[in-house]
Task: structure prediction
Amino acid sequence: MEENRLFDNWNRALLVSLQLPTKSTTEVQNSLQELSSLACSLGGDVAGLVVQVSSQIHPANFFGKGKLTEIKSILQKDNVDALLVDNQLSPKQIRNLEKLLECAVLDRTQLILEIFAKNARTHEAKLQIELAQSEYLLTRLVGLWKHLDRERGGIAASRGTGERQIEKDRQFLRQRITRLKRQLRKVEKERKTQKKRRSNCFCVSLIGYTNAGKSTIMNSLTNSSLLVEDRLFATLDSTTRLLEEDSRPKVLLSDTVGFISNLPHEVVAAFRSTLSIVKEADLLLHIIDASDDIDEHTQTANIVLQDLEALSIPVIKIFNKTDRISPTRVLLLEKLYPDAIFVSAFEERNKKYENKLGLVHKIRKKIMVFFEERMKTVRIRLDYEHCQQLANIYELSRVDNIDYQEQGIIMTLTAIPRNLDRLRHHLGSNITEMR
Ligand SMILES: Nc1nc2c(ncn2[C@@H]2O[C@H](COP(=O)(O)OP(=O)(O)OP(=O)(O)O)[C@@H](O)[C@H]2O)c(=O)[nH]1
Ligand SMILES: [Mg+2]
Result:
């Protein structure tokens, strides 16, 4: 395990979940399996999974007395040094559990924040994760402070060094949050410049649950070599590449950070700048792991899109990893999602050249048809004295036909509405639109 971790150092963990009546056994089991993947992403060992079915939360220790005795004996027997809880715990509950069980106690949010911290590569990702951590710690600190306050009788007179230290820490965190937000605003400004450059293009963004295969598909479509790994949150920043050299308009494809159920609010908020690529897209390609929990993952994507105010952007669903499900299941899904695309980016990679065009061709074609339907065709006349504008015209539109006539150059152009507006603006009275 890594040294200097944000929360406690641990090597071997027991995973626990409290199953309340609102959750089904399958939901709880799937979520625990995911928690196990999160733990493995950090390089930790998983000693086992424990579920307590209960109608209520124990206010002080979260779990009931009997279950805690069982947990404690597993911890001792199995040499476990951390308890990972798949529910949201209050700071007080974490402290009580740590005292009682004498081991580190982490909840889902803490694990996700640690993975993000470990995987952040770019300046922007690092700033964003530092912001998410600071905001998370600040809320915990407030809880801790209240807890101390109560423990000591809750009177101002009892405030000791500990509390003053917490107050100092709070101040420090607040200052850090302000500084990080300022730095992130700078990065956002740079993004706005890039956005201006992109405005001639159609922007397509890959979205979806973490580990669904977004980067693998991005690599196939754009001949890139972005990091692909069988672990959660391999990608934490956004990368944009041109989809096709010659198409007009140009189509840009972006890969970005994945989603996860119960994504902590601090993380979504902090990654707003990276995720702005999603919000500004003309089209979203939603990559879904066909072998995983489709409904849960789709619901998660919708929650994040809503949070990003991106629900109105058109979406094409792409079911990936079809090699991991039976042909009958593929047929069923095809019936259920007639507009979706079904691929296996994995098989694609293994087959190399043979059938290589399969996935790339299917997805590109769908994207092009989508945009084609939104393009407008116009016939214009350009006077010869303004023929230096031809470069602009070729940049912003597809020239379907060109005819050099006595009264000027007659062209049939197809372009996205915003580029046609731009041409009208550029050329003013130098072009005449014809019927
Ligand atoms: N079996 C199978 N595995 C696949 C397929 N596509 C991708 N994978 C594997 O799934 C894992 C995750 O792939 P990535 O492309 O990194 O997924 P991602 O959605 O970018 O994940 P994050 O960036 O971590 O959110 C890798 O081990 C890939 O090799 C597929 O079609 N079938
Ligand atoms: Mg990725």
